[in-house]
Amino acid sequence: MLTRKQYELLMFIHERLKETGVPPSFDEMKDALDLRSKSGIHRLITALEERGFIRRLPNRARAMEVVKLPDSISPGLGAPRPRGSFSPEVIEGSLGKPVERTEPLAEKISAPSTMEIPVMGRIAAGVPIEAIQTHSHTISVPPELVGKGEHYALEVRGDSMIEAGILDGDTVLIRRSDSADSGDIVVALVDDEEATLKRLRKKGASIALEAANPAYETRIFGPGRVRVQGKLVALFRQY
Fold it and tell me: Given CB 3.0 to 4.6 Å as the disulfide criterion, which of 37, 63, 120, 128 pairs with 194?
């Protein structure tokens, strides 16, 4: 599974190679994806290379080749998305569907029902990383813990939220939402490129993403740069 930006970059490189035989420059890729800096392109290319979609060629500046394309392409992915419109970047697939049971009614009553929640990859509690990866597996949670709405889970990487009790390796349960109150711990998407788990603070028209670790500074963003993807509901930890 690719993020929308990863998919758009992969197809842009693929089409340019088909047309000219020469990969696009970083400036051309940045302009094509409407990104603010080339650092975002570097992260996207690294993610595509790690997932085996492209290969950078040694001893040749800027040279790369497309190794493969996605097996199945959603029709909606190829269409440009209006800036400012809400389209969740962390949620893919079927979310929060109850487990189907076939056992007798008496057995249903004696055993508590559960809900299967998809684990959608990793989220950074530290320096933001690409959060969207493959739907690797599911976790079973009690319905009373989930409540209403659609949910997904993410594996935490990093230590920036340790004073909020969120540790590296934890699995967080997220309720999908495009809004949050000041003080909520949220999955925040920055510049449509990077996702991170932070406490949200509203400062006028600006948004601050606040760590729970004094080693990390609070990052402040102007209007339109941060989109909420969901709010923390619970976390799970294995010992």
Answer: 128
Instruction: Give CA–CA dist 58/60, Å, rounded.
Output: 6
pLDDT digits (tens, 9 = 90+) for 193-223: 788 899 999 988 899 999 999 998 999 999 9
C-beta separation of 158 from 5 below 8 A: no
Strands (E), 6-114: 54-56, 64-66, 97-98
Identify whether the C-beta of residue 85 lies closer than 8 Å to the C-beta of residue 92.
no
| Amino acid identity at 217 | E
Q: Contact, 123 vs 36, CB < 8 A? A: no
Active site residue 198: yes
Beta strands 151-157 and 115-124: pairing type?
Answer: parallel
Q: To 10 degrees, the CA torsion angle through 59, 61, 65, 70?
A: 120
Catalytic residue among 87, 198, 202, 203: 198
Rounded CA-CA distance 101/98 in Å is 9
Give the residue among 62, 51, 59 at the shortest CA–CA distance from 10. 51
Structure tokens at 131: 């959060």
Residues 42-65 have pLDDT tens digits of 888 888 888 888 888 765 556 788
Retrieve residue 228's tokens. 């909420």
What is the C-alpha separation between 68 and 185, in angstroms, rounded?
A: 37
Which is catalytic among the residues 160, 177, 179, 182?
160
Neighbours of 135 (CB within 10 A): 15
Residue 38 catalytic? no
